[in-house]
Each structure stands twice: as C-alpha cells, then as structure tokens.
UniProtKB/TrEMBL annotation:
The keyword ATP-binding applies. This is FtsK domain-containing protein. GO terms for molecular function: ATP binding; DNA binding. Pfam families: FtsK_SpoIIIE.
C-alpha cells in the first residue's frame, strides 16, 4: 500500500515538475518533451488521418489474401491463402517531422494526381485531426508539400515594436510563423491596408510612423477624417491634408515633385533616384492616406471635378512614384470598385496588400484579389477580440497571417515630437531640389 502511495506521489511530483517547466520555459519544454511525443503521434496516426482527409490513393499491390475455397464434406468452407493483386489505400510518404518555434513541420511526397491545393483544402481537417491551431500548406518544389503546424495561435500576444534601422524598412509586427512582419517600401512600394472599423488599421499606420520617424524620410499625411488621426503627428509630417481641397493641392504638389525628380534622373542618366549619387539624391517621401474612400466619395455633382483630379493625381503617383522615391500607404474600410474606376486602377498599382478583420467577404476579395481562397477564408475568420491581426500578401507571392505590434497614439505622438527635427519642410522638398549635374 505504502509502495503504491510512493509511486503515486512520485508521479504527481513529476507531473507538477513538467507543468512548471512548461510554464516557466516553454521553448525548451517543447523541444525536449512536447515535440518528440507529438512527432511520434503524428507519424503513428498518419495512415488514419490521411484516409480520413481523403489524401490516400488506391494502388494495386501483390498481397497474400485468404479466399474461400471449396466446401468440404463436413460443410465447412475451406479457406485458402493466395498471392494475388489487390487494391490497397496508399498514404503519401511522410518525412520525419521537424520542430519549429510554434509547432512542427513535415515534408510529404504527393501521390500521382495530387496538387498542393488538395492538401490546402484538407488543411482544416488535418488541423482538427491532430488537434493543432492551424496547418499551413506550401510547396517548395513539384511533388513535395510541406505542412506547417502551429500548436497555439502565436498572434494572441505579440511583443514590443523593435527599432527599424534600415531605410524605408519597418518591422511592424509578427507573422504567424514567428518571423518578423516587415514593410519594406523599396521592395513593395505601394500598400493597401483595409479592414472594418476598429480592426487595427490606424495602429499599423502608427507603427509605420514610429518606425519611419527616426529615418531620413519625409512623411506626408492625408487624413480625411478631418485630421483627427494624423494632426497629433504633425511635427514629424512634412505636409498634411485634412480636407478634399487641401488634398487636391497637396496631390498636385506631389505630382509636380515627381516630374521634377523625373527631370533630375533624366539629366543624370539614372533610372531612379537610387542610382543618383548620394549628394544629389532627393529625400524619399512616404505618403500615408487614412480613409481612402473619402477621397472618392461624392456628395453632389459640384465635387466631380475635384474627385477626378484627386483620383488622377493619386494614380499617377502610384504609377510613377516608385522610381522617384514616393511611396503610398493607403488605409480604408472599403477599397471597392463601387468608389469608381480610379480606385480599381489604384488597387492594381498597390502590390502590397493587408486585410484586417472585415465585415463582408467582398472587401476581403477586393483587397486580397485573386489570392488563394484559403487566404480569404482566413481573413473572414479574424476575431474582433484580436485587433491588429491581418492577412498580408507581399513580395514573395505568399500570404501570411500576421499581427501588428500595439503602438498607442501616445507612443506615435511621442516619436513624432522626438524626431520633429528630422522632418524636412514641404517647401524645402518641393522648391529646393538639388541642382542637376551638367555634363
Ligand atoms: N496590434 C494590436 N494589438 C493590440 N491592440 C490593438 C492592435 N491594433 C489595434 N488595437 C486596438 O484596437 C483598437 C482599434 O484600432 P485602430 O484604431 O487601429 O482601428 P481602425 O481600423 O483604425 O479603426 P477605424 O476604422 O475606426 O479608424 C485600438 O484602440 C487599439 O487599442
Ligand atoms: Mg483608423
């Protein structure tokens, strides 16, 4: 009796120790205990799971099978063993699972006739079968599929905004894979940032402002919410438009600036400002637009001309801005074609897409375009309790679930004050362009 008690006490102590280890240092617990057990169970269950998720194929195999033979005089059926071809369910070959920061990943060999899409369709069923938060599917090369499992949602809590030392590159949050979520304007110059109200659009703009404030970059704001969002950041902004009229003139300035820079590049035989010698290179301009739809909404016919001007100017900036160091970051609740052809054309120019929580499937479709349907489903599944979570499509053609770091208005305001001295004045940017080189 006492022996049993000792064993029970020892087991309880081990269980408590493991719990404490898991709680205190999850990464080492996961590598030493959690992952080996999970990997063994994934391998052991693969046949059943693949069958249940329709990922197996019938194949003909030679097999010893029992077949009923003649009925003996006693009335019993004689069973014979015969070597014959039978159809068996074959599962895709699975390599050993490997641990990742938030779960595990495993490579599979696809069976004939299968595509990565078949695995993506089964991703939710696979996640439920293995009891993990999510399974993401990618295909590094033909015939191979990588399943990436995340045990728990890594985006429930993301830590502090790190400093962003590289020019025009800001780490704004964390991807579901655990990697940093970076917005790099030199790789993807123009971005669309959509989402329902309170989904985290302005928080992301704050993160960008904080990241860019310390860099030698001019920031320009269009805040059609009457300036309530961006006015506190005015010390670091080189220009701010808060109404339609102001927007028309600021956009006209931007177009003129672009044409000036075009001339400068032409004279120096440079294709873009980055090919100019550093002494001649003009300052890059990042244009932040909040409530994009307001630029296109028409209250009455008298506004038609203004809207046409705004729309054309914004589109020109999007089409030509990249080479001349003018980058766009447009936020809006809806960025749909119902706002007019200008928006559709602008959308086509913005290769960076961010879709926060949306209320209707069309907004997700309009923002993310013709990405994988799983991305659209994922965007619609973002919960209201996790503002800042978004689906991001960037330079590599892949989509990711990501969450921005929380950046309060006060933090962004503080950064704008601290780096106010780095804000070039608008007149300096627009009128004192460096003298072009004369050959
Ligand atoms: N990444 C995040 N982490 C934690 N909280 C966040 C995050 N992003 C946003 N929030 C919270 O969600 C709230 C709404 O965010 P935000 O103001 O950015 O939404 P929005 O999409 O700009 O809304 P609106 O369309 O009304 O302007 C904020 O008050 C903030 O506290
Ligand atoms: Mg907002």
């Amino acid at each position: 009796m006492s022996d049993a008690l000792i064993v029970l006490a020892a087991l309880a102590a081990i269980a408590a120790g493991l719990r404490a280890w898991r709680h205190l240092h999850y990464p080492s617990f996961w590598l030493a205990i959690g992952f080996p057990l999970t990997a063994a169970s994934v391998r052991a269950s693969w046949r059943r799971v693949a069958l249940g998720c329709n990922l197996t194929k019938k194949r003909q195999r030679w097999w010893f099978t029992t077949v009923p033979g003649a009925i003996a005089s006693t009335g019993l059926v004689k069973v014979r063993r015969r070597f014959q071809r039978v159809a068996v369910d074959t599962k895709p070959f699975m390599w050993l699972p490997l641990p990742t920061r938030h779960g595990w990943r495993v490579t599979l060999h696809t069976l004939e006739g299968q595509t990565p899409g078949d695995y993506a369709d089964a991703a939710e069923r696979l996640a439920h079968s293995w009891g993990v938060h999510a399974i993401r599917v990618s295909s590094p090369r033909p015939g191979r599929v990588v399943l990436m499992a995340t045990m728990r949602d890594p985006l429930v809590k993301v830590n502090e905004l790190p400093p962003s030392p590289d020019l025009l590159k800001v780490t704004v949050g964390r991807l579901e894979t655990g990697q940093p979520w970076t917005i790099d304007f030199r790789t993807v110059p123009h971005w669309l940032n959509a989402g329902a109200t309170q989904s985290g659009k302005s928080n992301l703009a704050n993160a960008l402002i904080v990241g860019l404030a310390a860099q030698p970059v001019a920031l320009v704001g269009f805040d059609l919410k009457g300036g309530v969002e961006f006015t506190p950041y005015a010390p670091r902004l080189s220009a701010l438009a808060t109404s339609r009229i102001e927007s028309v003139s600021l956009l006209a300035d931007l177009v003129a600036l672009m044409i000036d820079r075009m001339g400068l590049c032409r004279q120096a035989s440079a294709r873009n400002i980055w090919q100019l010698p550093p002494a001649l290179r003009p300052v890059p301009v990042v244009v932040l637009v909040d409530e994009l739809a307001e630029l296109y909404l028409m209250a009455d016919k008298s506004e038609k001309d203004e809207i046409a001007k705004t729309s054309t100017a914004l589109l020109r900036v999007a089409q030509l801005g990249r080479a001349f160091g003018i980058y766009l970051f447009c936020c809006g609740q809806r960025i749909g074609s119902d706002l007019g052809p200008g928006v559709t054309a602008l959308r086509a120019q913005c290769s960076g897409r961010i879709c926060h929580r949306v209320n209707d499937p069309e907004t997700a479709t309009m923002t993310l375009g013709d990405l994988d349907p799983a991305a659209l489903a994922s965007a619609r599944a973002i919960a209201a309790e996790t503002p800042g979570v978004a689906i991001v499509a960037g330079q590599d053609g892949q989509w990711y679930r990501a969450r921005s770091f929380y950046v309060s208005e006060q933090t962004a305001e503080q950064a704008a004050q601290t780096y106010a001295h780095l804000a070039p004045s608008w007149s300096e940017i627009t009128t004192h362009l460096p003298e072009p080189i004369t050959a």
